[in-house]
Structure formats: C-alpha cells, structure tokens
Specification:
single chain, 305 residues, alpha+beta, Cathepsin D, subunit A, domain 1, nine-stranded mixed beta sheet, two-stranded antiparallel ribbon, 47% helix
C-alpha cells in the first residue's frame, strides 16, 4: 500500500481536532479554534515522528504517549484547578478510545481500508473519495455513540444523586413533583430568610387561588402593579411573597412565591416534613424532558440527614 505523508498529516489533524472538539463539548471546558488547531498539530507531529523514526522506540512507550496526551490537553484548554484538568484528560482518553475503536472496526469489516504502522492507523489513498467517506462515517458513528453514552451517564447521575421527590401541601390540596437539587439555587425569601424551591407553574397551578393562577395563565407575572393588586386582594394574602432574583436567564426579576402548609422531601417510606420553606412560581419549563419540574435549594437536603 502506497502512503503519502501529507494525506496522513491532514487526516490526523482533522481527527485530532474532532477529538479535542468533542472533549471540549462534553467537559464543558471551552477552547478556541486556534488552541484546538494547535493541540491537533501537536498530536499529529508526534505521530509523524513515530512514522519517520520507527527505530526510536522511545516514541512508542506508554509513558511517552501519556505525556503527549497531557501536553495536548494542556495546550488546548485552560484550567484553574487540577480536578478540572483531570476530568478533561479522562474525557479526552474516552473520546480517543471511541474514535480509535471506530477505526479498528472499519479495518475489521473492510480489510483494505487501512494499515497499522508503529501504532498509527493509515488509510489508503488508492481510492481517496471512498477513504474520506468511510472516515467521515466512522466519525459520525462515534459522535452518535458518544452522545448516547453521555446522556445515559448524565441521566443516571441525575436520578441517583440529584433528583428527589417533593410533595407540596397548600390548603386542602397536595401535589407531588420531581425536583433537582440545584447548587445554583441560593434564593431566600427576603422577609423570613426561608429557602426557596422554584417550581413550574404548570406543575402546581391546581394549588393556586384563581386570581393568582390567572396572572400566570395570562403571562402577566412581570406586571408588578397587577401582581401586587392581586396578592393584596387574595384570601391568602399573608402567604404570598415577592422574591427578587437574578437567575433563570433574567436580570433583576421578581418571582411570585407562597408559603405552603409544608413540603415533604424523599420517597413515600422515608419522607421528611419541612414547613420553613417558600415556593417560587416559574412560568416556563425547567427541563426539556420534564425529568424535573422544581429546583430545590440544597439547604433543604439537610433535613434528610
């Protein structure tokens, strides 16, 4: 098989760039195009040395390859803490292994697709169009697998670590909703200093009096004069609050909140009652798939201990 070095260099720069881009996406450690390109070129330069200097065994040792991966990640990304660096490095390895697996799969199913030399997969240039098409197919399959695996990991983590059931009682009604323990939710009622649980309006609208419910149904919760008038005339006047916030995609916003009779946290066989809490009403979806419909202040988790 005839191999052109320029094709090998171009292919490896493209693949390295994709690997680093996917690593940036899943680690949420963003990197600019220039730094992605520099990291890709660094990895490709190392592979070229392995091809041109096959007798220099130092380049093929595990230690050298670990140093290369550390260097590529360090050049591409910025870090403030060692923990973030190690997480990014781990995701870089996972992404690299998946891309490599796709390459080995193509070699297994189509024997003339490529060869191994000094640990480097090289694709044939005798049929360049076919080679690039198959390479792009392998990349696409790898990206799909990564997306599926990452979603599964995220969903499992949310279910096991961050998702809890809460039951909200108000008057003679009770509603259960799934809640996410959100470390970014540090809201407190300015009057009582009680922690705030932010809940979707659609999840708890049956709990609310008609006059308060109509505010959200007509999407006039930003009309402060109407909100104030409705609260002051409500039979539940003493229960309702106006809670300032600067999150949920809005600066200097105001949530309508109310003090429930109590909330229960946890599963049915191990629930804890909490009365010192405020429910903040949010008139949009909090998650795309309704996996959770409330954001719970992490202070409330202390009640479970």
């Amino acid at each position: 098989m005839e191999i052109y070095l320029d094709i090998v260099i171009l292919e490896n720069i493209v693949i390295n760039y994709l690997i680093l881009s996917v690593t940036a996406r899943f680690s949420k450690n963003r990197a600019g195009s220039l730094r992605l390109l520099l990291g890709s070129i660094l990895g490709t330069a190392y592979l070229v040395l392995m091809i041109l200097l096959p007798d220099m065994k130092v380049y093929t040792t595990v230690f050298s390859k670990v140093l290369l991966s550390i260097a590529m990640v360090a050049v591409t990304f910025s870090f403030g803490r060692l923990k973030i660096f190690l997480k990014t490095l781990a995701l870089f390895y996972a992404t690299t292994f998946l891309f490599a697996g796709a390459g080995f799969a193509l070699m297994f199913f189509k024997r003339d697709w490529g060869i191994m030399r000094n640990g480097v997969i090289m694709t044939p240039i005798s049929l360049p169009d076919t080679s690039w098409a198959e390479l792009l197919l392998a990349v696409a399959v790898t990206l799909i697998i990564l997306r599926i695996v990452w979603d599964a990991i995220q969903n499992k983590f949310l279910r096991e670590k961050l998702l809890v059931r809460i039951s909200i009682a108000f008057g003679d009604k009770t509603i259960d909703v799934p809640a996410l323990v959100d470390t970014g939710n540090s809201l407190h009622d300015p009057l009582s200093n009680m922690p705030v649980v932010v809940v979707e309006f659609s999840a708890i609208k049956e709990l609310l009096p008609d006059d308060i419910r109509s505010i959200f149904e007509q999407e006039t919760e930003d009309d402060l004069s109407r909100v104030t008038a409705a609260i002051s005339c409500s039979d539940w006047f003493s229960r309702f609050r106006l809670i300032p916030f600067t999150s949920l995609g809005k600066e200097n916003g105001m949530l309508i909140g109310f003090r429930p009779d109590y909330i229960e946290i946890g599963e049915a066989d191990d629930r804890k009652d909490v009365q010192a809490v405020i429910i903040g009403i949010y008139n949009k979806a909090l998650s795309r798939n309704e996996q959770y419909r409330a954001l719970m202040n992490p202070e409330l988790m202390q009640t479970l201990q």
